[in-house]
Amino acid sequence: MQHGQVRPAVEGDLAAIAALEARAFPGLSYPYFALRQLFDVHGHHMLVTAGAGGLGLYGYVLLAGDGNGRSWLLALAVDRAHRQQGHGRRLLDAVLGLADDRELGAVWLSVAPDNHPALRLYQAAGFCLAERRRDYLGPGQDRLVLVREVPRRTPY
Fold first, then answer.
1. Using CA atoms, how far apart are residues 124 and 137, in angstroms rounded to an integer?
2. What are φ and ψ of residue 101, in 5° steps?
3. What is the pTM of this model?
4. Does residue 153 form part of some domain?
5. Does any domain span residue 154?
6. For residue 113, what are the domain limits?
7. What SS3 class is residue 154?
8. How many CB atoms are closer than 10 A to CB 118?
9. Residue 92 sits in a domain of what CATH number?
10. CA proximity to 106, closest of 70, 81, 139, 52
11. Mean pLDDT, residues 105-127 taken together
12. For a tag site, which of 5, 19, 38, 101 has the least CB within 10 Å?
């Protein structure tokens, strides 16, 4: 098992992220140019998990915060060869920690209704169903929209 370190994404990761996207989400992946622009705008909320010394990209996550109490988890993908090793959970925990630390508010996401591993991961992290959307990503691309409300902070 390869544990991988969670770290901020860097520009040099974009080609590997685009390749991972294409494998993870055939027909619905972000093309390189979109990832490039998302990195420029939201790169401070883009994390990867990679092997020792930065070798091998196992997964990535991207969060977009609007500064108005709402943020969106735009992507979470782990390479098939590295699934079931905790990479997705580490990435999700890390990006949710960023959202909480930076007070980005509730975190929203959409997920395919039949993506049971992702649904289990999100539910374990405190996400709840907000709505079911037909054709959310286009014809035949139904999605569940989930939300994780802001965790309560313990007063001093």
1. 25
2. -60, -35
3. 0.88
4. no
5. no
6. 5-148
7. coil
8. 20
9. 3.40.630.30
10. 70
11. 94
12. 101
Q: Is the residue at 23 inside a domain?
A: yes
Which 8-state DSSP code applies to residue 51? -
Give the 3-state secondary structure percentages of the chain, helix then strand then coil, rounded to 5: 35, 30, 35
Structure tokens at 65: 């915060």
Partners of 147 in beta bridges: 108, 128
**What would the pLDDT profile of 12-47 be if each residue is shown by its tens digit?**
999 999 999 999 988 889 999 999 999 999 999 999
Work out the burial of residue 50: count CB atoms within 10 Å of its CB; fewer than 13 is exposed, 13-18 middle, 19 or more buried.
Answer: buried
Asked whether residue 112 is domain-assigned, the answer is yes
What total of structural domains would you count in the chain?
Answer: 1
Tokens for 138, please give them: 């286009």
**Residue whose pair of structure tokens reads 């975190």 in the numeric block:** 107
Instruction: Retrieve residue 10's tokens.
Output: 């860097």
**Degrees (nearest 5) of the Cα angle 82, 84, 88?**
80
Q: Which residue has the tokens 């992220």?
A: 17
Gap between the Cα atoms of 156 and 152, Å rounded: 12
The token duo for 56 is 């091998």
